[in-house]
Amino acid sequence: MGFRERLARMIMPKNSAYTGAGTGRRAASWYAPVTGPTRQLQADLPKLISRSRAAIRNDPWASSGLEKLVSNVVGRGITPKSLAQDDGLRELLQDLFLQWSEVSDPDGVLSFYGQQSIAARSMFEAGECFVRMRNRRPEDNLIVPLQLQIVEAEYVPLHYNDTISSGNIIKAGIEFDKVGRRVAYWMHKEHPAETSFDSSKLVRVPADDVLHIYEPLRPGQLRGQPLLTQVLLRMFHLDKFDDATLLRQEIANLFTGFITKPSPEAGAVDPLTGKPLDYSNGDLPMVAMEPGTMQELAPGEEVAFNTPPGTSSDYPNFMRQQLMAISAGIGLPFELLSGDMKGVSDRALRLMLNEFRRRIQQIQQNQIIFQLCRPVWSRWLDMAVLDGAVSAPDYATNKRKTAKVKWIPHGWPYMHPVQDMQAQKMAVRSGFKSRSEVVSEQGYDSEQIDDEVAADNRRADNYDLKYDSDSRDIPKEQEIIEDKDDAQE
User: Fold this and answer.
1) Greater confidence, 143 or 28?
2) Sign (positive or negative) of CA dihedral 81, 82, 86, 87
3) Whole-model pTM?
């Protein structure tokens, strides 16, 4: 062995070329099993789901974080805007879908946009949910014969794995054909946790009728992972610690005293009564604590007060640090989870919200729009055409022309309304952005706004009313002056 080889062997780490893969003393307790994207979930997912739901039921931080994520992802609803070229057809589709959205729930409890919220909530809480698209009969008298049934993750048995006679393989309750395509879902008829549950009854539902709403974190992952997975144990112990601290403070606030009597002596008498001292009171207190009490004690009796420990001085900082870790684990800014804006500047808040909104937009596009809204619109349009509610003669050969749609999420309010509106105005006038896009960013439909503005103008003209909001009466010179003022500001 040459000198260079001996030198390389001397300076090379003994455990591994990567410190993270070392097996020395520092990594002796590091447990990192090698698992596939679905195998480990099959082992742990039922417990993760039950603990996640328990935390959301009982832990205010878990519940608050979930509600804030759902309200930011869905808001008042992600609405469709038809992009059909024919104006009459586009208007018909918009009006028809709006009417249908009120009867999309078979239980009649939620609208389609309420179902978006419950689907997002289920996805965060249990990692996934399933939506069955149920075609209805004409005698049901629906505007479009379609309804959506949202079921929880437990409806598809996680541990159901089999190979059936057709050669298809069932993994985690999902049936795949020989080329790996999802062809069906095997479902219970009712929730497995209900009292009347019969585990022997499974129904095969074609994959075309089922929407699986979840966020895969690894390629090939078949089932979803609850949002709180990384912070469940931390939240459990933090809640116990916080509850113990509260109890300790409650005890500390009980101003308790102890009366010490003199030691019993043979023949001792009570100096107040002249009778022998009686020590048979048991656990009954001699003196009750009341505000403003001045109690006279017998000779030889003393009072000692307890000194329970108070809250540790670093309790606020400790709680803040733990909540920051929880916020990072669920992808929610600490300030939004806790409501603590101490020390946050306006510029830092804008940066934080912009980063958070990118994550929300990712979930909106990849899960709610792509996995839920897009296939629902496609099936809804198919049923509307088949039912005769929509007339499209070339629909079978050119569905894309009729089915084009843009989904508009609920917009976020401006952080600086005047400045942000001026920036939007400049972007539109410079050709960097369309007016329709500005309206869409606020969660509205530009055509609907145009119709409302035109109706307002007609009504104002009929009553001979003049408003500053009517841009038709602004002279060109004044408009130029306003633009200069905006630029200076």
Assistant:
1) 143
2) negative
3) 0.80
